[in-house]
């Protein structure tokens, strides 16, 4: 296949030669009608939105209610991610580890061109340069995504740094990540544009050695915004391993105490365990404040002084529609929604907003809906995309190119029993063990809520691009590197908002009241808060967590912090089985740490 002579290939003046050549190569395979280089401007955003509206992909909401906002509907058959069709094409299968599907890179390199052949016929091929992290930050990484989805371009505009500013800095010599995406719906033989084009054949391939990603068939952003989870976590985790930093599934926040002292905390929770809620919480403790730096991903690296620093690789959120006040402010205007219901007066609506609207409602599949319809009006994972500068709660340092120094690391998950509200790890290795053995009881899937237990180390089970056992070793190595540079790695804590009584009722109010636990953590960092040493770490002393203004009684707090040695021993055995399943990849130091805990529990 040759590049059509009539193809108006535009090369922006700043595009480095290797980029222009690669774009031409992909165009020769996919044969788009034309190529558009995205500049990231507001004018471009309007053009793309108008195209989406004209093709029936997007609906403009009532500007009097929700200015400059749009809703788009996915095909119900297009699932949130292409998990089982996502392949890590590393040269060595062992590099993919048991949590990833491995495929032979040579084989995939042969298949992909035929899958993508002519895939963009009749469509526009967009070239979107993006920067993950603040422009000019030594921790930032750049990339370019080619896509034939205007929906993706619109979403990337909202939640990433894209366009000319990035292109201008794209160093031809330096490495940048390449992503190719097609919805797999060429417009040939008179085929018309469809509301949310996609193809039932889905395939996502990562070539970690080549820093390249290919995604076919998916329209939904989770699988196809390649800079998002696929790069920010999956590819970046591998890059981070090779370069000595961490790309993690973490919220990043700034905690300010009544004296004005600021701390930066990163929290790793599995999906659906409340990272976004934590990063955007409204404090219920007078004088204490939480501000957001990142709701979902943090990139962490030792800084010039050896201490760990963190940045948010994104510049906004592609989040599940929220129930919290802070996020509601942020999405009051200038927002792209996907798969929400739409009211007859032109606003969006979803179940967790509470009372159904007074007007009629069209559900996310486009059908009329009433509370009696017996099905949800909005998709369980309906999303919004919004830029960070619209969030009233963003910390002013959120896009500081130097990043923020991490004062503490938190891990956590959903546990109805055994795990206390909060505890501090003995040291870095013990904290890494806590992260490696995170077990969570509930995973929110696309349309069902399962209540199963599953291990989800550091919340990275679905996102780590390499062997999870090696990931734990990498965490240990990063701690060692910090020490070798003469600094101390931050203390690690584990939290659990989800402990229940014997009738299954939650013991802890959670949400805004979680700031009380953060306050204890801050006091521990100062050496002020009292702690009780136990075999599983340091717990708060009675009365150490401020409870004024809550209905939590001292007895409830005691129940939240109670340790049952039988439960904990059983937990140790389960953890040992789990970490040992990674064979040679399981760090010896983690097994030793587990043995230490077990010995102390038996004593
Ligand atoms: P991803 O963005 O998918 O990685 O997940 P996340 O960690 O940001 O969690 P998400 O916001 O998707 O889900 C949070 C869920 O936990 C929601 O159902 C919240 O209502 C619930 N949640 C968050 N914080 C708390 C809390 O403190 N207590 C209780 N009981 N529930 C909480
Ligand atoms: Mn997430
Ligand atoms: Mn989230």
What ligands can be seen in this structure? guanosine-5'-triphosphate, manganese (II) ion
Low-confidence stretches: 1-9
The major sheet is characterized as: 9 strands, mixed
How many DSSP E strands? 34
| Amount of helix | 25-40%
Figure out the total of helices. 15
As an assembly, this protein is single chain
Q: Could you tell me the strand content as a percent range?
A: 15-25%
Radius of gyration, CA atoms, in whole angstroms: 24 Å
Mean pLDDT over all positions: 89
N-to-C CA distance = 72 Å
Q: Provide the structure class.
A: alpha+beta
* Morphology: globular
Write structural notes for this entry:
With 603 residues, the protein is α+β, with helices and mostly antiparallel strands. It is 27% helix and 22% strand. It is built from 15 helices and 34 strands. The longest helix has 17 residues, at 227-243. The radius of gyration is 24 Å and the shape is globular. The termini are far apart. Residues 1-9 have low confidence and may be disordered. Bound molecules: guanosine-5'-triphosphate (GTP) and manganese (II) ion (MN) (2 copies). Residues 245-598 form the Phosphoenolpyruvate carboxykinase C-terminal P-loop domain. Catalyzes the conversion of oxaloacetate (OAA) to phosphoenolpyruvate (PEP), the rate-limiting step in the metabolic pathway that produces glucose from lactate and other precursors derived from the citric acid cycle. Belongs to the phosphoenolpyruvate carboxykinase [GTP] family.
């Amino acid at each position: 296949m040759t590049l059509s002579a009539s193809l108006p290939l535009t090369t922006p003046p700043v595009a480095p030669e290797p980029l222009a050549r690669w774009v031409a190569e992909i165009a020769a395979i996919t044969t788009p009608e034309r190529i558009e280089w995205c500049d990231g401007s507001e004018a471009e955003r309007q053009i793309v939105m108008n195209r989406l509206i004209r093709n029936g992909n997007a609906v403009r909401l009532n500007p009097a209610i929700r200015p400059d906002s749009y809703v788009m509907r996915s095909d119900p058959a297009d699932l949130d991610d292409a998990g089982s069709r996502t392949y890590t094409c590393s040269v060595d299968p062992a590099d993919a580890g048991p949590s990833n599907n491995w495929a032979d890179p040579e084989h995939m390199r042969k298949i992909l061109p035929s899958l993508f052949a002519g895939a963009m016929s009749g469509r526009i091929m967009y070239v979107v340069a993006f920067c993950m992290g603040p422009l000019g930050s030594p921790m930032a990484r750049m990339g370019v995504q080619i896509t034939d989805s205007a929906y993706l371009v619109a979403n990337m505009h909202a939640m990433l740094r894209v366009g000319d500013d990035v292109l201008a800095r794209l160093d031809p010599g330096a490495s940048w990540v390449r992503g190719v995406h097609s919805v797999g719906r060429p417009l040939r033989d008179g085929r018309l544009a469809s509301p949310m084009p996609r193809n039932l054949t889905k395939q996502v391939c990562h070539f970690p050695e080549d820093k390249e990603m290919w995604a076919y068939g998916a329209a939904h952003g989770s699988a196809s915004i390649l800079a998002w989870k696929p790069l920010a976590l999956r590819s970046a985790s591998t890059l981070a391993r090779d370069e000595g930093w961490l790309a993690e599934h973490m919220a990043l926040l700034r905690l300010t105490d009544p004296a004005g002292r600021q701390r930066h905390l990163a929290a790793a929770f599995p999906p659906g365990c409340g990272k976004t809620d934590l990063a955007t919480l409204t404090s219920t403790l007078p004088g204490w404040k939480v501000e957001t730096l990142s709701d979902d991903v943090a990139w962490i690296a030792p800084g010039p002084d050896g201490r760990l620093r963190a940045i948010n690789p994104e510049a906004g959120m592609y989040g599940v529609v929220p129930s919290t006040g802070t996020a509601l402010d942020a999405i009051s205007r200038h927002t792209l929604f996907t798969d929400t219901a739409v009211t007859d007066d032109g606003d969006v609506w979803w179940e967790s907003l509470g009372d159904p609207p007074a007007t009629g409602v069209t559900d996310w599949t486009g059908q009329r809906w009433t509370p009696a319809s017996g099905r949800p009006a909005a998709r369980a994972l309906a999303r919004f995309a919004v830029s960070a500068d619209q969030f009233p709660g963003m910390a002013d340092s959120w896009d500081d190119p130097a990043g923020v120094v991490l004062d503490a690391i938190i891990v956590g998950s959903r546990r109805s029993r055994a795990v206390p509200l909060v505890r501090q790890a003995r040291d870095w290795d013990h904290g890494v063990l806590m992260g490696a053995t995170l077990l969570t009881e509930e995973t929110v899937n696309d349309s069902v809520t399962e209540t199963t237990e599953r291990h989800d180390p550091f919340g990275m089970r679905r996102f780590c691009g390499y062997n999870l056992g090696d990931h734990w070793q990498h965490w240990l190595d990063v701690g060692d590197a910090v020490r070798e540079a003469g600094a101390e790695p931050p203390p690690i804590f584990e939290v659990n908002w989800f402990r229940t009584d014997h009738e299954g009722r939650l013991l802890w109010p959670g949400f805004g009241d979680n700031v009380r636990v953060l306050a204890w953590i801050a006091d521990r960092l100062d050496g002020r808060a009292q702690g009780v040493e136990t075999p599983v770490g340091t717990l708060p002393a009675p009365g150490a967590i401020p409870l004024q203004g809550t209905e939590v009684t001292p007895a409830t707090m005691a129940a939240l912090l109670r340790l049952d040695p039988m439960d904990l021993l059983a937990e140790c055995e389960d953890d040992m089985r789990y970490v040992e399943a990674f064979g040679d990849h399981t760090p010896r130091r983690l097994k030793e740490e587990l043995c230490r805990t077990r010995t102390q529990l038996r004593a």
